[in-house]
Amino acid sequence: MDTRRAEAFSDGVFAVAITVLVFNLLEISLGQQHPYRDLAHAWAQYFAYVVSFLTIGIMWMNHHTIFAHITRVDRPVLVLNLLLLMGVVAIPFPTALVAENLHQPAGAAAAVSYGLVMILISIGFTGLWIYVVTHAEKLGGQAQPEALRRSIPGFTGGLLVYVAGTVIAAVGLPVAALIIYGVLAVYYLFEHLPAPAGEA
Amino acid sequence: MDTRRAEAFSDGVFAVAITVLVFNLLEISLGQQHPYRDLAHAWAQYFAYVVSFLTIGIMWMNHHTIFAHITRVDRPVLVLNLLLLMGVVAIPFPTALVAENLHQPAGAAAAVSYGLVMILISIGFTGLWIYVVTHAEKLGGQAQPEALRRSIPGFTGGLLVYVAGTVIAAVGLPVAALIIYGVLAVYYLFEHLPAPAGEA
Amino acid sequence: MDTRRAEAFSDGVFAVAITVLVFNLLEISLGQQHPYRDLAHAWAQYFAYVVSFLTIGIMWMNHHTIFAHITRVDRPVLVLNLLLLMGVVAIPFPTALVAENLHQPAGAAAAVSYGLVMILISIGFTGLWIYVVTHAEKLGGQAQPEALRRSIPGFTGGLLVYVAGTVIAAVGLPVAALIIYGVLAVYYLFEHLPAPAGEA
Amino acid sequence: MDTRRAEAFSDGVFAVAITVLVFNLLEISLGQQHPYRDLAHAWAQYFAYVVSFLTIGIMWMNHHTIFAHITRVDRPVLVLNLLLLMGVVAIPFPTALVAENLHQPAGAAAAVSYGLVMILISIGFTGLWIYVVTHAEKLGGQAQPEALRRSIPGFTGGLLVYVAGTVIAAVGLPVAALIIYGVLAVYYLFEHLPAPAGEA
């Protein structure tokens, strides 16, 4: 199979998953007494929306970069891609838990669930990337052991930060954990996987 | 009509249907007393999510394989494809029933409804595949009676397993039925329709 | 603008709109006393789902046929297309009203709203089709006054049937109206707009 | 990265966001006493649906026009595009607030939130457009300082009208504000960004 249809399907999944985030905002309703205050009090919803939106957006960019290294997909790539998408599609779930519970006792558990989903996705990305780089020739790309070596710090670093955020959430600081997740997303906006030669 | 736009529409439907599965997870909410226990107790939701996600993902792969055999679509292909998608889009419905009722008396009926939807989809796939292979030349592909013959065990086997799962659910073992549906999905991750000559 | 991106956007809208129909099914829940009876009693939900699914599917096919006549789009085509999609996206709304109220006094009003949306969409299709055929040369297609003339009975017939269904609903026969909408959908599965020369 | 996959992802996001608007309509339910009156009383829902549908549709057209100026995207374009989409995806949220509260005291706050989201999106479009036009050569397009200069009135005008609508909503005239947003959408249906040379 060439990469075209696998990318089209993945793009569709990313596009729907990122848009599902708005359903958390749709939970916000205004009372008739203090509607402006109600709008302002929903800041945890907006914050969770922004963090998850940027996170899924960056994952989409990294996904594109991975597939830009190859021209064909085989069955293991499709299966690894499916497992990865299974994590991405789940993101609105811990996002909703965080948005609803950030100020409450359950906020810690919510932020832990957010971190766990991110850790699973990080592992999924690492697995797909290792497979793609080590099977580049079979997949119609160029073997790039160099790309693999150079990308190790980025993957390991991201994973460690998510582990740290999850631990920080577990000890009872969910807002700090969410800020860490957000900072990581902003960091990755500008720092990313090596692109194939000749691509920006 | 060439296959491009029919594939694009189908890819979109598969992508949305697979993402709709997260709405079942969005039903989970945390109490403030035992939030970690609430997260753990929702395992039926996660299980149903994983089984249906893998199932729709595999159906998408098989759908691609079927369309890779041809270069044009005619009206019967479009109609058969639409009937097939009507089943795929419905999957989040029995998934939700199973996730909500797995531990309760209604779990058996829920798992039966899951199996019935899968049986309908299996019949839809078989019908589309038979039409495509037997009309391959008209559809710009190569006649492949061999591919049809080789695929019979796979289709029949899948259908029989879904029938068996439905019966097992009906006699009151919905968890066993869901495990069977999940094992079948994992099996099909690696065992699949014959690809056209020259494709992996 | 060439037709590619307008088609891609429209395909996406059709794909999401057709998948949104499953949210009506997600409203169905099972009691623990008589779950099989609950499944059976939801037949109005299934019926409405099937009718609307086929209807949107056929509209997608007709949409493709219209765009197959041209190779470029101009601003009026985009605006007419947007108005048409505004009707298509609304379909899950009267579908939900019909599914919830078919057996109740409000069923008549629900089936009337369904018919009105269909009438608006029919007018939208007619407008887009007339514009495309009469501006074919500007849009990179071939002028086909013949295609326009041949398509008049189909458009007029469909519109009249929707008007008839709406009237039948208004006098208090919503089930009969829904059957009429369904029969029309099945009829259009096999009877359709003239394709451009050389296309099936 | 060429523009193809960025456009495909953006098209998907626009398509889902515009379809999510129907979920506001799905909130409407019919009583059994006066179902026709209930349908008629929901006019604020229909009005908000139409305004937001046209608005997102026009944004999609403008998005296409911007990307038609270039053939490659770089990291800043992707980030700016992501920020823009973050606003577009949020549109169903203020739309729901407006639809639910238009006749009530909270209607003013709802229409203010609508205006604020539109102002943010306008700024996002302006930023993306300035970047694209000033980096056209790097992005594989033609430098068009002329296009930038000609587009200033349109961008500034749109932004000012949204500011005016927000102010009018804030002083307690939410219906007037919604009419202004709607008129602006209709105006932009026919008045738009300069297309690249050779495109309509």
Key terms for this structure?
homotetramer; 9 helices; 200 residues; mainly alpha
Describe the model.
Four copies of one chain form a homotetramer. With 200 residues, the first copy, chain A, is mostly helical. In chain A, 76% of the residues lie in helices and 0% in strands. In chain A, helix 5 (75-90) packs antiparallel against helix 7 (107-134) and helix 8 runs antiparallel to helix 9. The longest helix of chain A is centred in the middle third of the chain and has 28 residues, at 107-134. Chain A is elongated, with a radius of gyration of 18 Å. The model of chain A has no long low-confidence stretch (mean pLDDT 89). Chain A binds chain B through residues 1, 5, 8-9, 11-13, 15-17, 20, 23, 72, 74-75, 78-79, 82, 85-86, 89-90, 92-93, 96-97, 100-101, 104-106, 108-110, 112-113, and chain B through 7-8, 11-12, 14-16, 18-19, 21-23, 25-26, 28-33, 35-36, 38-39, 49-50, 53-54, 57, 60-61, 64, 68, 189-190, 192, 195, 199-200.
